[in-house]
Amino acid sequence: MMSFWDFSNAVYMAPGVANECLQLQDEFDVDVNVLLFCAYAAVIAGVRLSEQNLHDADSHIADLRRGVIAPLRACRRAMKVGIAALSSGDRDRAEQLRSQVKAIEIAAEQIEQERLAAWLAANTHMERGELPGALDDNLAALFAPLERKNRVVPVPAALVRAALAQAK
Length: 168
Description:
Blueprint: H1 4-12, H2 17-28, H3 32-43, H4 51-84, H5 88-122, H6 133-148, H7 157-165
C-alpha cells in the first residue's frame, strides 16, 4: 500500500492542487495534511471518515500543529516579508535560512502525517467506502463544521482529480 507521505506528495504536486490547498489553509484554516488525509483514507485505505473520526484524528495531531508546525510556518512567512527589505548580499543568506526553516516545517508535517497514518491503522472499525463517493463524503465531513458556520468551502477539484488518479 502506498504510504500517506508518498500519496500526499504525488497529489500535492499535481497541477492546481498546491494552490487549492493553500487557499483552503489561508481562507478557511484547513490543515492541508488533514485535507490530504481525507483523500488518502478514501483512495488508498478505502475508508469513509465521519466528522467524529476526523475530530478524533485531528486531536491526535493538534498539539504538533499548534506547538511546532504553526510557529514554523509563521516564522517562514514573516521571514519572506523581512527578507525583501534586506540588501542583496544579506538577502541571499537570509533566503538560505528561510529555506532551512521550510525544510524543518516539511519534516514536522511528515511527522504529522505519520501520526495520522498510525491513527488510521489503529482504528480499523471505520466504515468502508467506494470511490468516488468515499472521497466526496470525507471532504464533506471535513468541511461540515465550517459550513455550519455559513462558510461556503469550495470543492478542491484539482485535489479530487489528482487523488482519484492515484487509485489502483
